[in-house]
Write a structure and sequence with these properties.
Helices cover about 60% and strands about 5% of the residues. By secondary structure, the chain is mainly α. About 25% of the residues are buried.
């Protein structure tokens, strides 16, 4: 079965519509996504799919698939509670997926380079393993698909139920790490993000990290360049801030060096 195209605007529109049943969509879509992930693992090149830790990830996904298809369709409040219990269990099972995939890459490296290392180690002019074998694109697509699965699943966990009906708008939960203090959210999607505030929060945290490691940090000027309405966006605030912090950390380190 084909995957559905998922974007933030669609999520907000559907999940804020009282006539829409996001739980049923989730019940249908997640097994399809997991099936595609299993197929991706089976088609990973250069023997990566046969590495022990990658096979463990495949086993985890097969178990997830069975749990999801065995769960009753959430057509009542009681069944919705049961389905949420299944999603929480799935989330717990997936905690180690990224680490296991990384260990699988290391296993492949060891298997393919064992003779070269026995003859005196890596040649200094040799490019990294993923460049030699060309499986980086397969991993990128795998992780993007895994992110989509997590987004759909965790969106359900963040939705507020009222009288057993579909989700409504809710105020975002308060957090000391959040730079947005007001506005609305649909599940885990913030509908009124102030990009300037997010950028300033990311700058503050990135500079603090830089100062801890180097004893100093360059000044950063924050400005939003684009259409007037670009300063207010609908997205997942913590993800935007995380991306900005990582980009700024790289820029600060390069500047200090």
């Amino acid at each position: 079965m084909n995957l559905s195209n998922i974007d933030i605007d669609q999520v907000i529109e559907k999940c804020s519509d009282p006539t829409y049943k996001p739980m049923i969509f989730c019940h249908r879509e997640l097994p399809i996504t997991i099936a595609h992930l299993i197929g991706m693992i089976d088609q990973m090149p250069n023997g990566l799919s046969a590495m022990p830790h990658v096979m463990k990830v495949r086993d985890i996904f097969c178990s997830t698939f069975k749990m999801l298809v065995d769960a009753p369709i959430p057509t009542s409040p009681e069944m919705e509670v049961e389905f949420m219990r299944v999603l929480a269990l799935v989330d717990e099972h997936h905690e180690d997926v990224v680490r296991k995939m990384a260990l699988g890459v290391l296993e492949l490296r060891k298997a393919l380079y064992k003779h070269r290392e026995a003859l005196g180690g890596m040649h200094p002019n040799k490019s990294p393993l993923h460049e030699n074998l060309g499986f980086q694109n397969s991993l990128d697509q795998f992780y993007l698909m895994f992110l989509q699965f997590n987004f759909i699943s965790r969106q359900m966990a963040h939705l507020t139920k009222r009288d057993g009906s579909s989700a409504q708008f809710t105020a975002p939960s308060s957090s000391s790490d959040s730079s947005v203090s007001d506005g609305c959210a649909v599940g885990m999607v913030d509908t009124d993000i102030d990009l300037f505030e997010v950028a300033e929060a990311a700058v503050s945290k990135a500079k603090m990290i830089c100062e801890q490691h180097y004893g100093d940090a360059p000044e950063i000027m924050v400005d939003i360049i684009g259409p007037q309405d670009v300063e207010k966006v609908q997205h997942i605030e913590e993800k935007l801030e995380y991306i900005l912090i990582e980009l700024l950390k790289n820029a600060l380190r390069a500047t200090v060096d």
